[in-house]
Design goal:
The chain is of the alpha/beta class and 352 residues long. 32% of the residues lie in helices and 21% in strands. The protein is built from 13 helices and 15 strands. The relative contact order is 0.10.
């Protein structure tokens, strides 16, 4: 199974936004840049529009406009950007900006740093400081640097490996690792993935190795083979750098005779939905969801005889990661929305 990034709606939304920007070059009127529900395009376009002469209205879905971006706006405003919040988005008067050194708070999203890196050549940026030091999802910042390094000089921030292993999507691969564990008699081959990938979510190979899933590189891709008998002990996962993996892992916990604890989950509340809240609500009939503290929770799977009547109707909240997670229940699941899968994995239903 492989995922073509060009088919993902997030990629298409970003491409259309860039096409709109290019088509408006030199226009004196306000150009609307609608990024729908794409958080990455929201942050990246905010930075790009701030340094692109013209008048822009950056907008999207109501949920998108609730998601964190204020830290990025504050840094851009401090160096002279003209950005004003409006009822339906952000009004931006693009202009040349300069800054050799910047500090960005990435406690709520690493995309703030990536956005600044993407306009670093426009700013003349030489040093980007990221706080706090343990900000989540920093592997994505290193990924941004690695992708940029082939094209332009980049600010001092971190060393990155030269062997990138970029083509595949490890955030989607977690679904098939879970399937391999649940259906050990089946064979799964994940195309276009590298075990040496710089993508942070490649950690799933190590996580599932602890659960008995072996990842074997082949000419076709990574072949998965599983030994379900190894799943006995409770496990804990630090997901500060890997929040997109949590929904599938949480659903998997409901289907295994063990407990999963997830640590540093606070940024899951700022995604396409409040994933901590909605996972707890939707998985409650199948597991005991214990909120240990604000940034951690545990899934304690129930025996199948205590499950609700099946098939069970799951509410995805329009969130592609939740939809992917609930599909692990197979024929026991009815989803109110599978179109949201187009955001990151439009071919998933066909692959299933």
């Amino acid at each position: 199974m492989g995922v073509s990034s060009s088919e993902c709606s997030d990629v298409q939304v970003t491409y259309r936004a860039l096409e709109t920007l290019r088509g408006a070059d030199g226009s004196a009127s306000t150009t609307v840049i609608d990024v729908a529900d794409c958080g990455a395009a929201y942050r990246f376009m905010m930075a790009l529009l701030a340094v692109t002469p013209g008048q822009w209205l950056l907008t999207g879905t109501p949920r998108l406009l609730e998601r964190p971006i204020e830290e990025l706006v504050e840094v851009l405003s401090d160096i002279g950007a003209d950005i004003r919040r409006m009822p339906d988005g952000w009004l931006i008067e693009g202009r040349p900006l300069r800054a050799e050194t910047l500090t960005i708070n990435c406690s709520r999203s690493s995309q703030f740093a990536s956005a600044l890196l993407l306009i670093s050549s426009k700013l003349g940026l030489k040093t980007l400081n990221i706080i706090p030091a343990d900000a989540g999802s920093l592997p994505y910042v290193r990924l941004t640097l690695a992708c940029m390094r082939e094209q332009v000089s980049v600010p001092a921030i971190a060393e990155v490996p030269q062997n990138l292993g970029l083509p595949g999507d490890w955030s989607a691969a977690v679904f098939w690792y879970a399937m391999a564990l649940l259906h050990p008699d089946n064979e799964y081959v994940l195309q276009d993935l590298s075990l040496n990938s710089i993508q942070g979510d490649a950690v799933v190979a190590d996580w599932f190795a602890r659960m008995g899933v072996k990842s074997t590189p082949t000419e076709q891709g990574i072949r998965l083979s599983a030994d379900y008998t190894q799943m006995r002990q409770p496990m804990a996962f630090d997901v500060a750098d890997h929040p997109d993996l949590v929904p599938v892992m949480a659903a998997l916990a409901c289907l295994l005779p063990t407990d999963f604890t997830f640590l540093h989950v606070q940024n899951l509340r700022y995604k396409e939905s409040d994933r901590v809240k909605h996972l707890a609500e939707q998985l409650a009939p199948f597991a005991e969801v214990v909120e240990l503290k604000e940034d951690a929770f545990r899934i304690k799977g129930k025996i199948k005889s205590t499950w609700p009547s099946l098939p069970y109707r799951f509410h995805t909240m329009g969130d592609h990661r939740l939809a992917m997670a609930f599909l692990l229940f197979g024929n026991d699941a009815l989803l109110d929305d599978v179109e949201c899968l187009r955001k990151s994995y439009p071919g998933l239903i066909a692959h299933l």
